[in-house]
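Hi W.,

Here's what went into the run:
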Amino acid sequence: MKEKKILLILIAVFLAAYFIPFSKAGVQNALMEAFLLLQEYARQHVIFCLVPAFFIAGAISVFVSQASVMKYFGPKANKFLSYSVASISGTILAVCSCTVLPLFAGIYTRGAGIGPATAFLYSGPAINVLAIIMTAKVLGYKLGLARALGAIAFSVIIGLIMNAIFGRKRNKELEENGFDAGTTVPETRPLWKTALYFAAMVGILVIINWSKGDPSITAWSFIYRIKWYIGGALGLALAWMLVKWFTKTELKEWTFSTWIFAKQIFPLLLGGVLVSGFLLGRPGHEGIIPSRWIAGLVGGNSLWANLFSSVSGAFMYFATLTEVPILQGLLGSGMGQGPALALLLAGPALSLPSMLVIGKIMGTRKTLVYILLVVIMATLTGLIYGAIVQ
Amino acid sequence: MEIRILGPGCPRCGEVEKRTMNALIELNVAADIQKVSDIKKIMEYKIMATPGLAINEKVKCSGRIPSPEEIKKWIREEL
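Here's what came out:
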């Protein structure tokens, strides 16, 4: 199988090299846009945003116990807790996007109610901590916040609807079997220490990215002027915590986990940036695809624009974080804010391959209902958000 | 000894596999190691999250990358 893949790649590269009209000005321009966008990312987003985000992601995957979160997913757990935990647990449990489907399979077969399980299935990729951070940084805090809130709200709503439709039969089967959340690794650190540690890292991330903002808002500008002092202080606090509360092995595991994420995700992001730059150009510039087409298809805030966005998002596969440069390109080429949010909510959560896997786990009927719910909610939320920000 | 690494193929599962092989070499133990990537087969092991490590059909660890010492301990348990 691997040899065939290599052959196909070689053929594809050859055909591209042979046929792409590199002498045309439009193509040359698009290529420049790809690299200019890449430079923009390298200069503006990597050091202060992406790197701290990787460290946070690494910390979550090493220091946060999954089982302590999972015990809220059983059918007997308090409903309100179940759904709230399921909807935000994606941040904690699914830092690596590849874990989402096996995790969903695990909690589904282990006896989680279908409501919390699908809430998690949706929220996992949708509020991936790296993605929210990058969305806020690159596409703006409004869209980042809308994405996070939308994803959380959605996952609860989708979970509740799935439970309403499919819940009764399933919960009866589960009452017999009970729910096993897995074994907990003994905590080597009280919760408040872990919380402070994360607060310090998130604080550093937020403060070093504090933008100039509107000079007339005095509180904001004040913070901006002393941001490096605040950052430095938080950095010292973090260093003290690391020395006092963590063993050398733990720190090694943390850096190692961070490195695994960086190795896996950074190349994908750069690839996504190059592709987005080539196809759509930087905001305010043209890529290979004329802006008119984008503005025509998904500009403004019509029902069609939002629907088209969510459906394409549902089927398209977005490698982790690649939705950020692609959306940046689309927004720069004329996509409306509403359809952009629709794409953010439907895109990362679903793709054609993942639909097939979910089908194998839940069965075709539940999967189709799930997909339909995602598309409808993404469209609606896009419409509402687009109307609000207009 | 039969060892199964459960995971869809992301680098974390690869790391579990690497650590397991190193552990086997250090302990001088022979085992049949296989990677299980098919989601239905992974579900049969009833683990919560990948990566997962099973020795002689007993799940020793799931949802995290175990340390080399832990892996050696589990291998010794199953000798």
